[in-house]
C-alpha cells in the first residue's frame, strides 16, 4: 500500500481528538515535514486544532490575534483551492513582521494550505510547512497535491465525526457504479483511465461522479471520495 492508504487506515481507527492529534504528528513524520496543522472553526466560533507548532508560538499567535493579519488565513478564507504561501501577499509591514516572528519560532520558509468548507458554515485549514528551496518545495507539492487534498478532507470528516456534529444529513447509499468510480478515484486513477476500466464514456462517468457528490453532500469530487472513505462506503 502507498503512504496515503496507510495513513487513511490509521486515521480510520481514531476514536478521540487526542488520537487525531497523534495522527497529525505521525503524518508530519511520514512526509518528513517541519510542521503540519489542522484547524477548524464552526459556525458559532468553536475551534479545534491538531498541530505540531510549539505551544509558545501558538500562545503568542492567539494572544496577539495574528489571524487578523495572517495572509494565510485571509487568503484561504477567500478561496476554495489550495494555496502555496509564496503566492500570497506578504508586502504589508505587519505581514512581514509576522513572517519574521514565525521563522524565529521554528516555522519553515515554505507553506501550503488547503481550505476546507464543511457543513453549516464550518471552515477549516489543512497546512503543511517545511524548510527547503523553492524548487524542492514545488516538486514536493506538485507530486503530492491530490494526496494532500484528499487527506485534508478525510481528516476534517474524521474530526467532525468524533465531535458528533449533528449538522450533516444522513448519507445516502451509492449505486455500484458510483462506488466503483469513487474507489478508482481514491486510488489516484484519472478520469480517462477510469472510463476505460469501466468501459463507459467520460460524459457518463461525470454523471456517476455528480450523482455521488449529490448523495454525499460533497462540495467537490475530492470531498466525495473522503466522505465515502470515512463512512466505509468504499475501501481502497
Automatic annotation (TrEMBL):
Keywords: DNA-binding, Transcription, Transcription regulation. One of its GO terms (molecular function) is DNA binding. CDD domains: LuxR_C_like. Signal peptide: none annotated. It comes from the Bacteria. GO terms for biological process: regulation of DNA-templated transcription. Residues 167-232 form the HTH luxR-type domain. InterPro entries: Sig_transdc_resp-reg_C-effctor, TF_LuxR_autoind-bd_dom, TF_LuxR_autoind-bd_dom_sf, Tscrpt_reg_LuxR_C, WH-like_DNA-bd_sf. This is Regulatory protein, luxR family. It comes from Litoreibacter janthinus.
